[in-house]
Design a protein that fits this description.
Shape: globular
Order of helices and strands: HHHHHHHHHHHHHH
Number of strands: 0
Distance between the termini: 27 Å
Low-confidence stretches: 289-301
Number of domains: 1
Strand content: under 5%
Number of helices: 14
Structural class: mainly alpha
Mean pLDDT: 82
Radius of gyration: 19 Å
Largest sheet: none
Helix content: over 70%
């Protein structure tokens, strides 16, 4: 599938994720929701790979890198994010998460030896400016206090975790590890780590058989986890972590549009200006969808 199609599809799918997640955490604990989501997605992915006869055996060293990717990508990022949102608005969380566009550039340069592309940095800064304008009302009301600082700390940890997870994924793909099979393992590693955290915190492993919960769970697992995450990891291999990071600027824009259409959110002139600036940044970052040249070869996993 062309990279442009995958890119747009991920943005559109994850732009609706928050609605489904809200249905989940209204019925069960957030940590438990993360466990169920990625355990189900991982089992489905590995089951499909087994049915198709894809190789599923890897060395202990390869599993070690898959565990690092899985814990950071499918556990700690979500756990930090859920805790951040308890102390700050979703808009501010989205704004902080936009910093991943800059972090991916820095981490990719330091850890993978990738060149720093000025257009990508400029686009990332435009995206950050656009999101700051979009969420300015929430930013203006933000007051420094113990709870606010805790939320900001968790938001920064979530952003760093997500960025490092994408860098590890890029490293694993360059080491020759396939996307589909390894994503299934990574999701199970993330679910296992989240289960340990949930048990340590004494969270009850509840469940709901209501139609809204089951529909939202199916949406979270199939399009939002299996399809979107596999598509994102394919894009990481094709485009590089720096360009792919701009997804986190566009996803809140889609979420705002969905909220305006289905929840009556009014889009102000200031918000529209911020969206336009963010989209201009996207033009800078994604002028082409050419495959990123490989950086100096890493030690095979």
């Amino acid at each position: 599938m062309p990279s442009a199609v995958l890119y747009v599809a991920v943005v559109l799918v994850w732009g609706t994720l928050y609605i489904a997640v809200a249905q989940q955490v209204a019925a069960i604990e957030p940590e438990v929701a993360v466990v169920y989501r990625f355990a189900a997605a991982g089992i489905v992915l590995l089951g499909w790979c087994w049915w198709r006869g894809r190789p599923l055996r890897y060395t202990q060293r390869q599993h070690a890198f898959l565990a690092i990717q899985g814990v950071s990508m499918f556990s700690t990022t979500d756990l930090f994010m859920y805790n951040a949102i308890q102390h700050m608005t979703g808009g501010l969380m989205s704004l902080v998460f936009t910093l991943i566009t800059i972090l991916n550039v820095l981490f990719a340069a330091v850890l993978l030896g990738m060149p720093v592309r000025p257009r990508v940095v400029a686009g990332g800064l435009l995206g950050l400016l656009g999101m700051a304008i979009v969420f300015w009302p929430a930013l203006a009301e933000f007051k420094i206090g113990s709870g606010a600082l805790i939320g900001l700390g968790f938001a920064l940890l979530a952003t760093i975790s997500a960025s490092l997870a994408q860098i590890v994924s890029a490293r694993n793909q360059r080491a020759g590890l396939p996307v589909l099979e390894t994503t299934g393992y990574c999701m199970l590693y993330g679910a296992l780590f989240s289960a340990v955290v949930a048990l340590a915190l004494g969270r009850p492993f509840g469940w709901s058989w209501s139609a809204p919960f089951l529909i939202s769970f199916a949406h979270v697992v199939i399009p939002c986890s299996i399809f979107a995450w596999v598509a994102l990891l394919v894009l990481l291999g094709r485009m590089g972590p720096d360009r792919v990071a701009y997804l986190n600027v566009l996803i809140p824009i889609v979420a705002l549009t969905v909220s305006a259409a289905f929840e009556g959110l009014a889009i102000s002139g200031m918000m529209a200006l911020g969206i336009v600036i963010a989209l201009l940044g996207n033009v800078l970052v994604l002028t082409t969808f050419q495959r990123t040249r490989a950086a100096p070869e890493l030690i095979k996993g």
